[in-house]
Amino acid sequence: MNTALPVINLYAVMPQIVLVSAATVVLIVGLFERFRKGIPYLSLLLLAVSGVVAVNQLGLGPVPFSDVSSMMVMDDFGLVATLVFIAGAVLTVLISISYAEARSIDRGEYYALLIYAVSGMSMMAASTDLFTFFLGLEVLSISLYVLIGFEQRDAGSNEGALKYFLLGAFASGFILYGMALLYGASGSTEYEAIARTLGGERSDAVNLLLLGGLGLLLVGIGFKISMVPFHAWTPDVYQGAPTPVAAFLSTGSKAAAFVVLIRLLGSVFPGLQMEWIPLISVLAVLTIAVGNVVALVQTNLKRLLAYSSIAHAGYMLLPLMADSQDGSASIVFYLIVYTAMNLGAFGVLAVLSARGAPCATLEDLAGLGSRRPLLAAVMAVVMFSLAGIPPTAGFMAKFYLFSALVHGGYVELAVIGLLFSGVSLYYYLRVVVWMYMRPAAETPAEAAGRLSYTGMTALCLSALAILAVGVFPSELLQLAERAVMTLP
Amino acid sequence: MTELPFLSLIIWLPVLGAVLLLFVKGDTAARWVGFGVSALVLVLFAVCFGAFETHLGDPQFVERMPWIESLGVSYHVGADGISILLAGITALMWPLALLGTWTIVSERVRAYQVFMLLMETTLMGVFFSLDLFLFFLFWEGMLIPMYFLIGIWGYENSARAALKFFLFAVFGSLLMLAAVITLAFLYHQAHDVLTFEMAALYQLSIPPEVQFWLALAFIAAFAVKVPMVPFHTWLPDAIVLAVVLVKMAAYGFIRLTLPLFPDALAELAPLMCAVAAAGIVYGALIALAQSDIRRMIAYSTISHAGFVVLGVFALNQHGIQGAVVHIVSLALSTGGLFLAAMMLVQRRNTWDMEAYGGLWHTIPVFSAFLLVFTLASVGLPGLSSFVGEFLILVGVFQQHIPIAAVAATGIILAAVYMLRMYRKVVFGPLTREENKGIRDLSFRETAVLACMTLFIIWIGVYPNPFLRTMEASVQKLLVQTHRLAETPPAGMTPETIQDMR
């Protein structure tokens, strides 16, 4: 009897390996006090290296990780997602530098955890097995628990961390239990095997197990993307977390969960469409409605952005139902644009509140247009983009998303989504009103003096990118389309 | 036809100007850049207009290139007789408006010029787009400069007004967006090609009940901006841009609603006419009750906008030509009226009619110009509005006599409220001390108003060149609207679209 060792293809998981190593290097270098100032730049460099690795693999896939069990796969979908995460992390590091320094949280662990989180997200995106998915999810979640509570002396930060931890632990529990049920039904945790079970003849008992498993998975993932009714943590955690971390949380971790959702619903559970389509459509509409309506009355900026991010998650849920390449591509495109927009919005707050009192409420923005013209212009671009007004990328993203939805035959849902996005204008424009049409307070909350160069660079880059994609979306659209082409 | 991409230059030159403005220091320099760029656009437009062939009904100066291929969107611009007239009045009004508000806008001058130029770009884009997606992009993109113009340089309560306007406008546009997507989807279903070409979408045969809903969505978007009663409540707060919006929205009706949904119009057109006629009377009656000059002009605009819509939905040659002429004339007469009023208010700082009186004795030049604009708004024969209103009423009389009769009373009411305003402001004894030392118009102001007066008289006395310019295009439009002939020659088939890619 001879046992053949499975052939393992390390090349297929190269981006993840590079990311984990990068995080570890940052962690170790961070131990030396004298390198403290250099850590963020080292992180940027290493993130860039992993980005280059991922770019080089584009178009080569799909390559499975091993020949016996699939576990992970290297395909354009996972790679594009990884690139989006890396870009998000780069922007987060840039807006973190002055913020972290001013609050003395600029320790090596901060940046190391950030990169660990990216590696977890990347793992989730590339996984083709529930186990690797869960592994990635936990790497991401644990890093986030710590990052949210990183401002140890701040009560809000602690409160946020505890809330996210407790609810996150529950969500993980749900996911694990769902995985167990799916394993019970199909005898495997591989996506392919589960899909096969779904495709074949199934008894009522198996059906029940599959349905239960899917339901529990949706609860867990719904928590991560703050889908109603699992959204309640979002405003509290965003408000408490250090602002750059909130930026990262609202974009990266949400994007990672969406990527998994596309893979799961698109290629594993099409067999249960009759069951999950009505469910998701109701939850998506609820998410859009709750996010947009509650955001109307917020005066705290981070809470406002939290509800706005809930609403955006709702939009992104919609095309899942269209069940087409177009639908998935439109989600990927939306995720990319959304990452740039939300990081921009939180970034403005982070840069403003780096020193002095934090910029927390709408009133703190009064007169920003004349006080800090460039920063206000960035915020205005971001707000118009979030609202979906041309010529910004936000419009293109919404257009593509809703046209995929209409092509899938869901005109009513598209109309509902569009009308609620009209409601959203009110609160986005309120930000602009405060910046440009209200006189400044006697003593502005934020400290005078120069704003952080790195932060401003990041913000101007994302504002320019938003405008550029708004006018010339072709390249990015093609990238999104190519990414979903490899999905089965 | 020509080598230079004229239309693109006209559309994008103001954006270049806006970028240039970011590097300009000082208010006066900024004003000169803004004025200079818009004057350059006017010159370009004049060249373009000179080369325009009036006997052709098809778009001219066409430029077309692929843009977002995966969505079937192309950058496709061109001008036909209707769009060239409306673009022309925009090109003319812009330098005049910037010159007229030279000193009126004294805060954040640079930003003002930037937003004005950006708005010119979006307006030109709307008029010249031949791709529905491109049209929507400009249509919606215009909201941003408008929002800032109303919010920052508007009058009291302007931030609120800007928000109100924006929300109204966006809800309309979002419905239109849903309809646009649906149209492209229907075309895709029928021909398996994804496209937003207007000419192609015109050929689409849509089931009447679907048409009805799509038409309603489009009408919602345009009716808000016209503004038609009952979607007019934002206007009195944001009058500054009313004239511009009337132009845009009426163009939307003509360019899209008529040819896209011919079957639905059979049901909707009489209804629209009735609503428009009601709007004419309603606006006039409220204008009658105002003592604030600005609000009076606002409500008179609502009334005039009713005429425009009425002409469009008369669905015949006279009505539509009248509507276009009336839009052009509105820009001149109402625009002039408002500009003159702003000049007066800059001197005396109040919009209240009662605060004036006897101005004829102190500022005769101003009073003379105000008289021209007032009479033009009333519709005096020999001045521009008469031509438009007359043609519109002729058009409507052929279709709905009772509606035309109601609408005609609007002209009488207009005479009442307009002349009442003029009497209160200009005639009567000079009772107030503040009005005695008031300055008359400067050379710059005189030049601006004189220029507008010239055009008002020209259109009033000899409207033929204007009517001839659009005649062929309106005929072509009506052929499409009434589906009179089989596929018109310039119609696009799915095959030609594929060839062009």
Keywords:
heterodimer; A: 488 residues; mainly alpha; two-stranded antiparallel ribbon; 2 strands; 73% helix; 1% strand; globular; B: 501 residues; two-stranded antiparallel sheet; 72% helix; 3% strand
Secondary-structure map:
The complex is a heterodimer of chains A (488) and B (501).
Chain A: H1 14-29, H2 39-57, E1 63-64, E2 73-74, H3 76-102, H4 108-126, H5 130-148, H6 155-186, H7 191-199, H8 204-224, H9 233-240, H10 243-268, H11 273-295, H12 301-317, H13 325-352, H14 368-371, H15 373-387, H16 393-407, H17 411-436, H18 453-471, H19 474-485
Antiparallel strand pairs in A: 1-2
Helix pairs in contact in A: 1-2, 1-4, 2-3, 2-4, 3-4, 3-10, 3-13, 3-18, 3-19, 4-5, 4-10, 5-6, 5-10, 6-7, 6-8, 6-9, 8-10, 9-10, 9-12, 10-12, 10-13, 11-12, 11-17, 12-13, 13-15, 13-16, 13-18, 13-19, 15-17, 15-18, 16-17, 16-18
Chain B: H1 6-21, H2 27-50, E1 60-68, E2 73-79, H3 81-100, H4 109-128, H5 132-141, H6 143-153, H7 158-191, H8 198-202, H9 208-225, H10 242-260, H11 262-288, H12 293-313, H13 317-348, H14 359-362, H15 364-378, H16 384-399, H17 401-426, H18 443-461, H19 464-481, H20 494-500
Antiparallel strand pairs in B: 1-2
Please provide a brief summary of the model.
With 488 residues, chain A is an all-alpha fold. Chain A is 73% helix and 1% strand. Chain A has one domain.
Structure notes:
The complex is a heterodimer of chains A (488) and B (501). Chain A is mainly alpha-helical and 488 residues long. In chain A, 73% of the residues lie in helices and 1% in strands. Chain A is built from 19 helices and two strands. Chain A has helices spanning 14-29, 39-57, 76-102, 108-126, 130-148, 155-186, 191-199, 204-224, 233-240, 243-268, 273-295, 301-317, 325-352, 368-371, 373-387, 393-407, 411-436, 453-471, 474-485; strands spanning 63-64, 73-74. A two-stranded antiparallel ribbon of chain A has the order 1-2. In chain A, α2 runs parallel beside α4 and α3 crosses α19 (474-485). The longest helix of chain A has 32 residues, at 155-186. The model of chain A has no long low-confidence stretch (mean pLDDT 90). By secondary structure, chain B is mainly alpha-helical. Chain B has a domain at 261-461. Chain B is built from 20 helices and two strands. In chain B, α12 (293-313) packs antiparallel against α13 (317-348) and α12 (293-313) crosses α16 (384-399). Chain B starts with 5 loop residues before the first helix and ends with a helix. In chain B, 58% of the residues are buried. Mean pLDDT of chain B is 88; it is low at 485-491. Classes of the chains: A mainly alpha (488), B mainly alpha (501). The interface between A and B is medium-sized, with 33 and 34 residues.
